[in-house]
Specification:
The complex is a heterodimer of chains A (98) and B (395). Chain A has three helices and five strands, in the order βαβαββαβ. With 98 residues, chain A is of the alpha+beta class. Chain A has one domain: Ubiquitin-like (UB roll), CATH 3.10.20. Chain A has a five-stranded mixed beta sheet with strand order 2-1-5-3-4, with helices on one face. Chain B is globular. Chain B has 395 residues and is mainly β. Chain B has no helices and 29 strands. In chain B, β7 and β8 form a beta hairpin. Classes of the chains: A alpha+beta (98), B mainly beta (395). At the A-B interface, α1 and α2 of A face β6 of B.
Chain lengths: 98, 395
């Protein structure tokens, strides 16, 4: 079981409060974690990654264990603390605009 | 007793304003979709409880929302509340936010690039839905005008969207270029007398028309003159801001261009200027009285460099002669120290006996005139900047 923290706009869109808890099949990577998130909450498709290319949207960042994972390859393993659920994967809106 | 429902899209959410036919006392519902930009928000003429909203964000992209109960509850088409969000094979069902340009070998092949700000060619990139136009007779059919400019259609209530690619494929695409607000398809007009005919407008490409239900399109910009285009006969490149039409007379169109107010009596085949005595003919909105097809409304804006009303006075101008002769409507509107703009989709008319006119400002006010413009009153004063205003007349 992993935990994902979404920004407030996306929590509202997915009708969730607090962290999202998900089971991920196979190796836990950014790609597999986001695949599992979008499978559970399809209304989030296209809001974090582009529909077609699956590239991260420009103003979103991924953090975990005080590390910026935004530029990591999507198939890199996530930190062990995320895999075991001790720490969340954080999807964060970059500071821009108002 | 008739009622009106005003649908307001703002920079930070949607609002629904309701009143009886007197249009004096108002209820306000919202914000809906708090914190998101609601570029446009419109009801189906075939089923007034069916509403569509374009919810968008620079961070999170495009979301389409639908209500089947007049705005009380909302869902993204394809993922209704309470229904499983995945198909039996485990795949997500939610496709309603997906706008994918046609790149098929048959119809998508010529659709490659448009002109970028620096004159180079640039690939089409989907950014947002600017305008949603529900079909006149089928609540499940709705058109979407998007940035980068293209028109999409859904025939399943907004679940899936398919491009009418004949527009981009008609050949002038490489000459289209974005205006300051992006390269957006912002106007969609459906002909009530001919279901095969649709008009659209793009900043900055111009106006186009299809007469075969969207398969093929032609530019209809003859008579438009733009200072920044050296060729007086340029087929495309014009920055059309909005087009309006009275449904009883669909061959007559009125246009607010970047500069110039224009009129066409032949469904767009040719245009002539009707700016007349306006204090400035720059602006964004234009609309037509519901019962008097020669009565039109604009809100002049000082200039392309100063997007606020002229002289610090918020004045709607009305022509009862189809253009050229204009009168300022000021009663109830601020006449000093006012520096708001009225954006292209932020004016609407109801169809009550005494036609009501509505508009919203970038300062967050929504005004109503229950007497065709003679007097005005604010419905709300302090919303986020208003992006769009639509009105439904309900019996």
């Amino acid at each position: 079981m992993i935990r994902i923290v979404l920004p407030p706009h996306l929590r509202a869109l997915a009708h969730v409060s607090g962290d999202v808890e998900l089971d991920v099949d196979g190796p836990v990577t950014l790609r597999s974690a986001l695949d599992a998130l979008e499978a559970r909450y399809p209304m989030l498709r296209g809001t974090i990654r582009d529909h077609g290319t699956l590239q991260r949207r420009p103003f979103l960042r991924f953090f975990a264990c005080e590390q910026d994972l935004s530029h990591d390859p999507p198939d890199s393993p996530l930190p062990d603390a995320v895999v075991c659920g001790a720490e969340p994967l954080i999807v964060l809106g970059a500071i821009a605009g108002g | 007793m008739s009622k009106v429902r005003v649908l307001v899209g703002t920079r930070k959410g949607a609002f629904i304003l309701t009143s009886d036919g007197k249009r004096e006392k108002w209820g306000v519902s919202g914000p809906h979709f708090t914190g998101w930009e609601i570029y446009h928000f419109k009801g189906s003429p075939a089923d007034p409880n069916r509403l569509y909203a374009s919810q968008t964000s620079g961070w999170f992209g495009q979301v389409i929302q639908r209500s089947d109960d007049g705005g009380k509850t909302w869902h993204q088409p394809g993922t209704p509340p309470g229904e499983a969000t995945t198909a039996p094979d485990g795949q997500p069902k939610g496709e309603s936010n997906k706008f994918v340009y046609d790149t098929s070998a048959e119809s998508g092949k010529p659709l490659t690039t448009h002109q970028w700000y620096d004159g180079t060619q640039h690939p089409w990139e989907f950014k947002r839905v600017w305008h949603l136009e529900p079909a006149l007779k089928d609540p499940n059919t709705v058109y979407a005008g998007v940035e980068d400019a293209a028109i999409f259609r859904s025939t399943d209530g907004g679940v899936s969207w398919h491009e009418l690619s004949g527009l981009r494929g008609h050949g002038t695409g490489p000459k289209w270029q974005p205006g300051a607000g992006g390269m957006c398809l912002h106007t969609i007009l459906l002909d009530p007398s001919n279901p095969q005919r649709i008009w659209i407008a793009i900043s900055a490409a111009g106006a186009f028309r299809t007469d075969d239900g969207g398969k093929t399109w032609k530019p209809i910009n003859r008579g438009l003159k733009s200072q920044y285009i050296p060729d007086p006969n340029a087929e495309v490149g014009h920055c059309v801001h909005h087009i309006a039409m009275n449904p009883s007379r669909p061959g007559v169109l009125f246009m607010q261009k970047h500069w110039d107010v224009m009129r066409s009596n032949d469904a767009g085949d040719s245009w002539r200027e009707v700016s007349g005595n306006l204090p400035t003919d720059f602006g964004f909105v234009i609309d037509v009285h519901a019962h008097e097809p020669e009565t039109i409304y604009v809100v002049p804006i000082k200039s392309d460099g100063e997007h606020f009303v002229h002289d610090g006075k918020l004045r709607v101008y009305r022509s009862r002669t189809g253009g050229n002769e204009w009168e300022a409507l000021t009663h109830g509107l601020p006449q000093s120290n006012c520096y708001v703009n009225v954006l292209r989709d932020a004016m609407a008319v109801d169809s009550l006996d005494k036609c009501g006119i509505y508009f919203g400002t970038t300062g967050g006010q929504v005004y109503v005139s229950p007497d065709a413009g003679d007097s005005w009153a604010p419905i709300v004063r302090d919303l986020p900047a208003v992006l769009s205003v639509e009105v439904q007349t309900l019996s």
